[in-house]
Amino acid sequence: MSAPLIVVAVLVLLAFVIIARTVNIIQQGYVGIVKRLGEFHSVRLVPLVDSMVLVDIRETPRTGDKQDVITRDNVTVSVNATIFSQVVDPKLALFSVSNYFIAIDQLSRTTLRAIFGGMSLDDALSQRERINAQLQAQMESVTDKWGIRINRIEIVDITPPQMILNALALQKTADQEKRAFILKSEGQQQSQINIADGQKQGQIKTAEGDKQSAILRAEGLRQATILEAEGRAQAIATVYQAIKAAAPDPTLVSILQLDTLSKFADSENTKIVVPVETAALLGAVQAIRGVLDAAPAGGKT
C-alpha cells in the first residue's frame, strides 16, 4: 500500500472522528452540558477538546425503599414515599452535588424520620396530606441549591407493627359495636318517646271527648231543667188563671185541701205531715160538716 493512500485513509478517519465528536443528537427532554477538561464550559462544543453530558430535565418519579421510622409515641412504622422531581438547572445538578439521584433519596429518608418523629401514630395514619406537604417543603429548601425542583411527594405506605395493627382492629371493632349500641339505644328511646307521645295524645283526645260530653250533658240538663221549669210555670199560671177565673169561695178551697190531704193519706208513707194551718183545715172541716148537715134538712123539706 502506497504512502499517499495511507495518508488519505488517515485523513478520512480523522474527518469521521471530528464529525462524530462535533455532531450530537439530543433527544427531547434532555439538555446537553459541555465540559472542557472536566469543568463546565458552555453549550458550544469544540471538537476533540470538549465533551457533552446529557441531563434528563423531565419530571422523574422515584419510589424509595421502605424504612423504619419512630413516631413521637415510640412506635416503629415502615414508610416509603414516591418523589416527583425535575432538573431545572442542569449545571447545578451536575456540579453542585456528586449524584443528585442518591442525594434526593438520602434527603427524603432523613426528612421522613424527622417528620414522623414529631407526630403521633394516630396523626401519622390520618394526616398523610400534611406529611406530604411538610416533606416537600423541607426537601425543597435543600434541593433548590442543587438545581432540582420537587414537584410533589406522595406517601405510598405506612405500616405499623402487627401488634399495633391487631390493637387497631380491636379498637375499630369496639368502636363499631359502640356505635351499634348507641344507635340501638337511640332507636329504643325514640320508640318509647313516640309511644309516650301517642298515649299522651290519646289521653288528651279522651279528655277532650269527656269534656265535650260533659258539656253536652250539662247543656242538655240545663235545657231540660229550663223546659221543666217553664212547663211548671205555665202549669201554675194556667191553674192560677183557672182558679182566678172560677172565683172559688172558702168552701171550695177547704174541699181542695181535704182532697190533697187524702192523697197524702193514700201514699205508702207511714207518717203524715199535717200542715201548720191546722186551724184553717179544721175550720174547713166544720164548714163542710155544716153543709152536709144542712143537706138532709133541705131534703126533708
Taken in chain order, the helices and strands follow as HEEEEEEHHHHEHHH
The structural class is alpha+beta
Instruction: Report the principal-axis shape.
Output: rod-shaped
Radius of gyration: 63 Å
C-alpha end-to-end distance: 216 Å
Give the CATH superfamily of the largest domain.
Band 7 domain
Question: What is the fold-level CATH name, i.e. the topology of the largest domain?
Answer: Tetrahydropterin Synthase, Chain A
Structure description:
- The chain is an alpha+beta fold and 301 residues long.
- It is built from 8 helices and 7 strands, in the order H-E-E-E-E-E-E-H-H-H-H-E-H-H-H.
- Strands 4, 5, 6 and 7 form a 4-stranded antiparallel β-sheet that branches. A 3-stranded antiparallel β-sheet has the order 2-1-3.
- The chain is rod-shaped.
Summarize, please:
The chain is α+β, with helices and mostly antiparallel strands and 301 residues long. The protein is built from eight helices and seven strands. It has four domains: 3-55, no CATH class; 60-160, Tetrahydropterin Synthase, Chain A (2-Layer Sandwich); 163-246; 248-264 and 276-294, no CATH class.
